[in-house]
Write a structure and sequence with these properties.
Helix content is 18%, strand content 50%. The two termini are 36 Å apart. By secondary structure, it is α/β, with parallel strands linked by helices. The longest helix has 17 residues. Helix 1 packs across helix 2 and helix 2 runs antiparallel to helix 3. It has three helices and twelve strands.
Length: 214
């Protein structure tokens, strides 16, 4: 298990590249006024199985947590993310943004929970999971969940599933862009929000995996 604590008033950010067989269980605490940003990247092919479990608890008021994730899967790969975000103190903020690009017969699962007890007024918590499906045989599951027991909070969650935009592909092809490049540009645009600020080496590796989906 990986344990991470962000002490009072400090800011911490990191990017985690997930690998098959690696320890991907995270127990995280965020102290008063602290700020945490973690980005998880999962690139899975073949018959790989990747699983990541993340638990976050706030230890003081005014804590902030941003979790981002990108999973790109092909062949018969299986990837799952489970997030447990517990707002156990008032006036803390969290955001979860997880995106998947699926091909082949791969399968993914996003299972995310935001819990806000009755005394935790002033909470802001947002959760998004978006999936881009490239083949008929791939399958994405999304289980966004809210348990809100407090008033005076701002909380939302949502999930989307879709294909590459045919109209946009047609437009780019009519402007002389070859179809493979048009498809690649759409996928890069979809992933860009998660990849913002990620080290260049990991971005290059991620884009290389996208090329194999064309």
């Amino acid at each position: 298990m990986n344990r991470l604590r962000v002490d009072k008033g400090l800011a911490y950010s990191d990017v985690i590249l997930l690998r098959e067989g690696a320890d991907a269980v995270w127990d995280i605490s965020v102290a008063a006024g602290a700020s945490l940003q973690l980005t998880f990247i999962a690139l899975a092919s073949g018959a790989e199985t990747l699983s990541c479990e993340i638990s976050v608890a706030f230890e003081g008021e005014g804590g902030q947590c941003l979790l981002r994730g990108l999973y790109i899967t092909r062949d018969s790969a299986d990837v799952s993310f489970r997030v447990n975000m517990v707002h156990n103190l008032p006036r803390c903020t969290s955001r979860q943004l997880f995106k998947g690009i699926l091909a082949g017969s791969s399968h993914t699962l996003f299972d995310g929970l935001i819990k806000v007890p009755a005394h935790c007024i002033g909470t802001e918590a947002y959760q998004e999971n978006h999936n881009l499906l490239l083949t008929d045989d791939c399958r994405a599951q999304s289980l966004p969940q809210l348990e809100i027991y407090a008033d005076d909070v701002r909380c939302s969650h949502g999930a989307t599933f879709g294909r590459l935009d045919a109209d946009e592909l047609f437009y780019m092809r009519s402007r002389g862009i070859p179809e493979p490049e048009a498809r690649r540009l759409q996928m890069v645009a979809f992933a860009s929000e998660v990849l913002e600020g990620v080290p260049e080496g990991i971005v290059t590796q991620t884009l290389g995996v996208l090329e194999k989906l064309l």
